[in-house]
Specification:
The structure is a single chain. This protein is an alpha/beta fold and 241 residues long. The chain has a single domain (7-238), classed as P-loop containing nucleotide triphosphate hydrolases (Rossmann fold). It contains ten helices and ten strands. Helix 3 runs parallel beside helix 6 (144-156). The longest helix is centred in the C-terminal third of the chain and has 16 residues, at 174-189. The chain is globular. One of its GO terms (biological process) is L-amino acid transport. Residues 9-241 form the ABC transporter domain. Keywords: Amino-acid transport, ATP-binding, Cell membrane, Membrane, Nucleotide-binding, Transport. Belongs to the ABC transporter superfamily.
Length: 241
Amino acid sequence: MTGATKPILQVEDLAVAYGHIEAVKGISLTLNEGEITALVGANGAGKSTSLLAISGLVKAARGKVLFNGEDLTRLSPHRIVESGVVQVAEGRATLTTLTVEENLALGAYTRRDKDGVARDLEWVYSLFPVLKNRAAGLAGNLSGGEQQMLAIGRALMAKPKVLLLDEPSMGLAPLIIQEIFRIVQEINKTGMTVLLVEQNVRQALRIAQRGYVLETGKIVLEDSGANLLGNPKVVEAYLGG
């Protein structure tokens, strides 16, 4: 974590509608360079939809997503990846009939710097030694936790400047969840900016410098992660207080 306060990605009045239903109702948030920002809330609050709109995978009804001043809402999803904003989708979406290493290679499909790709592959293997041990095996034979590690590793192979993580702890055992959050912190220590979308509010706010609480498509609270952890409203609603 770098402690940087320079904004790198700004969401301004972002709204997303499915038919007549407005799932995201004009949210605004800022990611500072080198920080972890958590977007937390209950299931159905609009967290994943917000990420999909930032990634260009669903169209915004209104609003802007500015990355270093460039409006991403005008770009196709693959151009957004090329610009440096990369999402790890909820549910992992690994290609189960390909090997672990083939999945990782696909993450680097936009890159032409072979030496850099080779270095990043070794970095991913250092973060996730289990993937190196299983590199020639099929991704479909990995456990749920290992597939989550593979999904994160594949995103890192695209060399993101901003990493968007959608529910990385979902469906995983407690020990694996702890490991995933530890690795997110390790990734952040390299200077990478992270937007972490999570139902696991306590874990997310513990590692985030800044947090936003989303309820029914609206941001209802924003503060430092530590302050939100101690906020009576957050404790009562999400932490069993």
